[in-house]
Design brief:
It is a single chain. It contains two helices and five strands. The protein is an alpha+beta fold and about 90 residues long. The chain has a five-stranded mixed β-sheet. The chain is flat, with a radius of gyration of 13 Å. The mean pLDDT is about 85.
């Protein structure tokens, strides 16, 4: 099953996450199919960027987002005024 989830990057005590499309059986920081965004929680604005066009593409192909990524997509969809399908 294809999943859209976070992949941790960055150093100790300075996390940075990449939003990736991956096979659900892969490890959290393992290989991935495509990187579609990033999330930096320690920035003042909690910097978040996701390519909604690619996210919609993968969702239409049956990819299932993690709970965190689903909430990000919902938040960004409201800001952009776009419709983002999530489960």
């Amino acid at each position: 099953m294809v999943r859209i989830r976070l992949k941790r990057a960055g150093s100790a005590n300075n996390p940075c996450y990449r939003v990736v499309v991956t096979d659900g059986r892969n490890r959290r920081d393992g290989s991935f199919i495509e990187e579609i965004g990033f999330y930096q929680p320690l920035q003042k604005q909690n910097e978040l960027s996701i390519n909604l066009e690619r996210a919609n593409h993968w969702l239409s192909r049956g990819a299932r987002p993690s709970e965190t990524v689903a909430s990000f997509l919902k938040k960004l969809g409201k800001q952009a005024g776009a419709t983002v399908a999530s489960e």
